[in-house]
Amino acid sequence: MRVLAAMSGGVDSAVAAARAVEAGHDVVGVHLALSEAPGTLRTGSRGCCSKEDAGDARRVADVLGIPFYVWDFAARFREDVIDDFVDSYAAGETPNPCLRCNEKIKFSALADRAYALGFDAVATGHYARLADGELRRAVDADKDQSYVLAVLTADQLSRAMFPVGDTPKPGIRAEAAERGLAVADKPDSHDICFIPSGDTQAFLGARIGVRPGTVVDAETGERLGEHSGVHGFTIGQRKGLGLPGPLRDGAPRYVTSIDAETGTVEVGRAERLDVARIVADGAVWTSGSAPAAPVAAMVQVRAHGGLAPVTARADGDRIVMDLAEPLRGVARGQAAVLYLPDAERGDLVLGSGTICATESAVHA
């Protein structure tokens, strides 16, 4: 089978490519140049798509004895991931750019080019497993990336390979060292790859500018302060609110609602973050079709968040999820990923959608 191995320059994608070669596939390595400043160097574990990363990927390809290319997807990445990220925050949402990158770049733009060139599959270093076309959690629960892959369709999954999902991360590093790959001890990338400084608010502020609004008390409507833009807030945020103090009884304030149209940010007690229902649009069912009847499942709303039991049903392009117990801090723009628990084979990803609305568990 002809396999295109997406090589980021990190240890995971290096071992994924090595395993594809060892399995007897005809493998070609490709590094995606996603930065519009390709000469930029990494700073420890921050940043990606740098000159250093491309060089590391090339050296791994040389050790493996496979062809290697660099494909420039910077313009597409800016439009589909960075601009989407900025627009989402400007709309008062909380997006996940890694999820959008998988959806729009690695398994759309990259995969489409790969198939046009005659490749049968795309292999990546993501921590997840595929079994009979089903997407499941990785063996290493701490590194599991099935959440950010849940946007992939059944067709995309049928032509994807995740070779490292069956091995814990320490084992991947050990294997890389045994294979003589120089990236064996390379630090993992953290934070948002296109914000190497780690200062998300400064990044957003430079692109969105000042959009003044007000901070009000969610219960009384009292005007508590002003702000320079809703992009500076996320649902559940407690610190950095720019307010003189807590509630009158000493309880902390949290961001409970964001209205980008009016520029209004509501703050209130933690209990006001509790939601009883989640509605997500842009539904993707990994089997290729929606369940015909409501299904008992578990929902995850953050990349490294916990699971909550729900009853989920398809409603056209939407998924409606009724929670068994209130869930706190759910924000528009986040992905809601549904899992079916399976202790033996790894939780099965049922489907996903982008959260567009919630219903509070608190009755005013």
From TrEMBL:
Residues 143-145 are annotated as: Interaction with tRNA. Its EC number is 2.8.1.13. Transmembrane segments: none annotated. Gene3D superfamilies: Adenine nucleotide alpha hydrolases-like domains (2.30.30.280), HUPs (3.40.50.620), Translation factors (2.40.30.10). Residues 202-269 form the tRNA-specific 2-thiouridylase MnmA-like central domain. CDD domains: MnmA_TRMU-like (cd01998). Keywords: ATP-binding, Cytoplasm, Disulfide bond, Nucleotide-binding, RNA-binding, Transferase, tRNA processing, tRNA-binding. It comes from the Bacteria. ATP binds at A6, M7, S8, G9, G10, V11, D12, S13, L32, G125. The active site is at C101, C193. Residues 278-355 form the tRNA-specific 2-thiouridylase MnmA-like C-terminal domain. The keyword Transferase applies. The record marks H126, Q334 as: Interaction with tRNA. It catalyses: S-sulfanyl-L-cysteinyl-[protein] + uridine(34) in tRNA + AH2 + ATP = 2-thiouridine(34) in tRNA + L-cysteinyl-[protein] + A + AMP + diphosphate + H(+). It is found in: Cytoplasm. Belongs to the MnmA/TRMU family. Catalyzes the 2-thiolation of uridine at the wobble position (U34) of tRNA, leading to the formation of s(2)U34. This is tRNA-specific 2-thiouridylase MnmA. It comes from Tsukamurella soli. The lineage of its organism: Bacteria, Bacillati, Actinomycetota, Actinomycetes, Mycobacteriales.
